Amino acid sequence: MRDLCKYKGVIPAFYACYDKEGNISPKGVQALTKYFVEKGVKGLYVNGSSGECIYQSVEDRKIVLENVMKAAEGKLTIIAHVACNNTRDSIELARHAQSQGVDAIAAIPPIYFRLPEHAIAKYWNDISLAAPDTDFIIYNIPQLAGVALTMGLFEEMRKNPKVIGVKNSSMPVQDIQMFKQAAGEDYIVFNGPDEQFISGLAIGAEGGIGGTYGAMPELFLKLEEFVKSNEMAEARKLQYTVNEIIYKLCSARGNMYGVIKEVLKINEGLELGGVRAPLPSLVESDMAVVNEAAKMIRDAKEKYQV
């Protein structure tokens, strides 16, 4: 069996960090990485949905990963999402990720054209082949990618010895159970939807990768602690609190990641910029949402003494 311990735990999805001109900010990337090191999370998922990868160039994503690796100093498990909507760019990012020494690469399926499963498998395997010394994680997010990871496709991908598991962001918790039961203990399944973190862990996920973890890593670490110690009543209460915060983060006119970056500015002093168009930027009236969400996080941290 493979040693998957380095992947088991709370792994925040890394946010895009911009300067005042809207370019990638190496300073911001390194500051955010150090913040996560200090919070004690297991690792980082870099250049995924929360990193606004769909709106960034290949060069942007290289700059982000290079600065994450520089600031992490080997203290975090790093998973680099390398998928682009063509194989050539994805291979370039996979090679670059391996050269940087990441623990694993990950990829969604190609979007827009509905490809047959054998073409999706070839896309993923071609990417994996470009980083032959690096683990590969399938990213299943059908509500955004437009295609779901079927059990047949998962079976086909397990023929690739570098495939170690699935980041499952589909909404049915049952999918985690199905992937885990089919693959066994030699594979890892990550819970994706933050709102069902404890449900995912309870049904078989060994870790979580989430887009709101970064706004409140202490609360997700506490959730994990409650589940591991079988304090499920307390875990449920905290999950409800976390969910209320998530609903607030999603309630602005501007994009949720813009809200989170402003929350981190208020609560943690981080300067991460805004979001990249066409994601909607925050408007002045959104600051009421930002301030309320920031306070909700502070109050929850105080309540749970984290």
Strand content: 5-15%
Biggest beta-sheet profile: 8 strands, parallel
Q: Give the spatial strand order of the biggest sheet.
A: 1-8-7-6-5-4-3-2
Order of helices and strands: EHEHEHEHEHHEHEHEHHHH
Termini distance?
Answer: 35 Å
Poorly predicted runs: none
Q: How is the secondary structure organized here?
A:
Blueprint: E1 10-12, H1 26-39, E2 43-46, H2 58-72, E3 77-81, H3 87-100, E4 104-107, H4 117-130, E5 135-140, H5 142-145, H6 151-157, E6 163-168, H7 174-183, E7 188-191, H8 197-203, E8 207-210, H9 217-228, H10 232-249, H11 256-268, H12 287-303
Parallel strand pairs: 1-8, 2-3, 3-4, 4-5, 5-6, 6-7, 7-8
Helix pairs in contact: 1-2, 2-3, 3-4, 8-9, 9-10, 10-12, 11-12
Describe the structure in your own words.
- By secondary structure, the chain is of the alpha/beta class.
- Helix content is 47%, strand content 12%.
- Helix 2 runs parallel beside helix 3 and helix 8 packs parallel to helix 9.
- The radius of gyration is 18 Å and the shape is globular.
- The relative contact order is 0.13.
